[in-house]
Write a structure and sequence with these properties.
heterodimer; A: alpha/beta; 5-stranded parallel sheet; globular; B: alpha/beta
């Protein structure tokens, strides 16, 4: 028998039934729920007189639309100033209370962005199928999970049946070998991959990231990479289990202990692709070719090394590309040929399910330490991904470093990544952002997003414009 | 779920690649706890000159005259002609809800993002995949012919233009069946309750840590 990929193994071990029409019934181990994509699903359950299939699979928390302002957060759900958002968070609380679903409420320890919270609590473990009504669910694949986003109808389907009707995806392997240079982070690696294969390059595929760059990467770094698989079109991104995976899981709240831990580890260690496994699509890159990356346009594939310039219309090979570039440059207020480092920033956002974990906070703090935000920058938001990240960062004194530099230390949530709360860009404002999407209007109507790593975003805050973190202000490790 | 069998209607354009779901329905409208009413805010940032707010009366807002779907000739369009990788980005099912609520029954594009494509079928909205060349032909015909209508037949898996083009499209058999009959997918899965329980019993023996940890 031919060898199986990690994805094949995860798929096979969750197959409940193979139907004759080509679809399959797949079992879902963990279902993560938030306020924005769940209310209609719970309502659907009620209208059909159905109950959740299992309770101990679900874990919920509000994250998308809650305030990151301490005064407003301290007032709890009742104190939310946006009435429409308040009703949505209250509805999540009510649904979880009604059905008995485990929820980490707005200010409870454990609350956080769904894709930060799941792994840090040990709610997501290797070998699981994980779904959530959010496209960045691929994040959990860093722990060798089969994890992907679903729509609200499928949130309801999973609540009611613990299964999804699915069709198997194709296997893609993205290999990056070598050793990344100083100042090059997991965010730069994944942006470079998206730049190479494009925003639709992974459509209909599950991606496994392999090679020395990912083996050398921390689990948190792997989460940053898997998180953005969807920005390359792939619903699923994964990294195989190694000792780092096991070490990361050990001792977390929902992870087994004792004999069951040993049993789990024995199984988890088998969650790798076989040597002779076949992939439908292969992509290979080398670490030497990856510099710190910055997006200049309105799609994550519109990305370039920080040392490069914005592309010109003349360089485009066809009319469609020319039209796309023209529209992007107009929206972004940029000229073709302009140096990326010449782009001034109005605001900086360090946070999101891509880059709000403790390592991201440390990387930003290392740059901010002893420096101050440029006077031309209106706001620098530092938004930890969870209550646990916030507590850890404060224990390490990182919050002090940020506030002394003139940055805002906020409460955990999705914040300006998607600007559902008050944290947003004004029209025409440029933002150095550690989030995952630079779509038109994503961070606020008319806002202009430049995606980059936490260190690069912190450096931009200090410099007042996009800058190469490797050389700025005498260089930063 | 709403069924789809055949549909004949006016085609309308969304002539750009990589249209993301933030563009289809911006984030501020995701605060709703309802499933309906998103139509007036479809393509909100392109369609109106001001910034849309949930609950605002869209009939009083200044519309963008340059946005094609605002033009009189596309009023009442029920088939959206679009470009490659339509619906990329966020998994929000509000995107197909908004398209459906606006009055679209089908989208025709060379490709879709996976999650959006899947979400359409849950809402009686048919995402048709044609080749880039075929989509180009339809765009070109629509450009020159006011009141340009297309017919979509799910049973036959064809898109037909009055000029005589008949383009076939592919889709998965199970998706086709569900959409043709408007089947309740959850109800269908629940018919497999015994198989699901058997799977769980076996799994609980092999991987007990997957069960019971979260209380």
């Amino acid at each position: 028998m031919a060898g199986r990929t990690l994805y094949d193994k995860l798929w096979d071990s969750h197959l409940v039934k193979q139907n004759s029409d080509g679809s399959s019934l797949i079992y879902i181990d963990r279902h993560v729920i938030h306020e924005v994509t769940s209310p209609q699903a719970f309502e659907g359950l009620r209208l059909a007189n159905r109950m959740p299939w299992r309770l101990d699979t679900n874990i919920a928390t509000p994250d998308h639309n809650i305030s990151t302002d301490k005064t407003e957060r301290d007032a709890g759900v009742a104190g939310m100033s946006d009435e429409v958002s308040r009703i949505q968070v209250q509805t999540l609380d009510d649904n979880c209370d009604l059905y008995g679903i485990k929820e980490f409420k707005i200010n409870e320890m454990g609350q956080g962005i769904v894709h930060v919270m799941g792994p840090e609590l040990g709610a997501t473990m290797p070998g699981m199928t994980v779904v959530c009504g959010d496209s960045h669910t691929a994040t959990h694949g860093a722990l060798a999970c089969l994890a992907h986003g679903v729509g609200t109808s499928e949130v309801e389907h999973v609540l009611a049946t613990q299964c999804l009707v699915a069709k198997k995806m194709k296997n893609m392997r993205v290999t990056v070998d070598g050793i990344v240079g100083a100042g090059v982070t997991p965010k730069d690696v994944v942006l470079a991959i998206i730049g190479k294969i494009g925003t639709a390059g992974g459509n209909e595929h599950a991606i496994e990231f392999t090679g020395s760059v990912f083996r050398d990467m921390s689990i948190e770094g792997r989460m940053t990479v898997c998180n953005m698989a969807i920005e390359a079109g792939a619903r699923v991104g994964m990294v195989a289990v190694d000792q780092k995976t096991i070490d990361y899981c050990k001792g977390r709240q929902f992870v087994p202990q004792g004999e069951m831990w040993d049993q789990a580890v024995e199984y988890w260690n088998r969650l790798t692709s076989d040597e002779d496994a076949q992939f439908d699509t292969e992509v290979a890159m080398h670490a030497d070719d990856i510099a710190p990356q910055v997006t200049w346009g309105t799609s994550p594939e519109m990305v370039a090394p920080v040392t490069a310039s914005v592309p010109t219309l003349q360089e485009q090979s066809n009319e469609e590309q020319r039209k796309g570039l023209e529209r992007a440059l107009e929206y972004m207020g940029l000229e073709g040929g302009q140096a990326i480092e010449s782009i001034a920033v109005d605001r900086v956002f360090i946070g999101s399910c891509t880059n709000s974990r403790i390592e991201d906070m440390r990387a930003a703090a290392a740059v901010a330490k002893g420096r101050t935000v440029a006077s031309s920058v209106k706001q620098v938001l530092i938004v930890p991904g969870s209550q646990m990240v916030k507590a850890q960062a404060e224990a390490e004194g990182l919050d002090k470093i940020f506030t002394e530099a003139g940055m805002d230390w906020r409460e955990p949530g999705c914040s300006m990544c998607l600007a559902m709360n008050a944290d947003k860009l004004g029209a025409g404002e440029h933002c150095a952002s550690t989030s995952n999407r630079n779509f038109e209007g994503r961070q606020g109507n008319g806002g202009r997003t430049h995606l980059m790593s936490p260190a690069m975003a912190a450096a931009a805050a200090v410099a007042g414009h996009i800058v190469d973190v490797r050389t700025f202000d005498g260089g930063v490790e | 779920m709403k069924a789809f069998t055949t549909h004949r209607g006016l085609a309308g354009p969304m002539d750009r690649a990589n249209v993301d779901t933030d563009m289809i329905i911006p984030k501020q409208f995701l605060k709703s706890i309802k499933r309906s009413g998103f139509g007036p805010n479809l393509f909100d940032e392109l369609r109106y000159m001001d910034e849309g707010q949930p609950g605002a009366d869209c009939s009083k807002r200044p519309v963008n005259p340059d946005f094609p779907l605002n033009q009189a000739r596309f009023k009442g369009a029920s088939i959206l002609l679009a470009r490659k990788n339509f619906g990329c980005g966020s998994s929000r099912e509000h995107a197909p809800w908004a398209l459906e609520d606006y009055g679209f029954n089908a989208v025709i594009a060379p490709s879709y993002a996976d999650i959006f494509y899947n979400n359409c079928f849950k809402n009686g909205l048919l995402p048709v995949v044609l080749t880039e060349e075929q989509v180009d032909i339809l765009f070109n015909e629509m450009d020159v012919e006011e009141g340009y209508q297309l017919s979509v037949d799910l049973h036959e898996q064809t898109v037909t233009s009055d000029s005589g083009h008949i383009f076939s499209f592919e889709l998965d058999e199970f998706r086709k069946e569900c959409l043709l009959k408007g089947l309740d997918e959850i109800g269908l899965t629940l018919q497999e309750a015994d198989a699901i329980k058997a799977y769980e019993a076996n799994r609980a023996e092999q991987h007990p840590w997957v069960f019971g940890a979260i209380k």
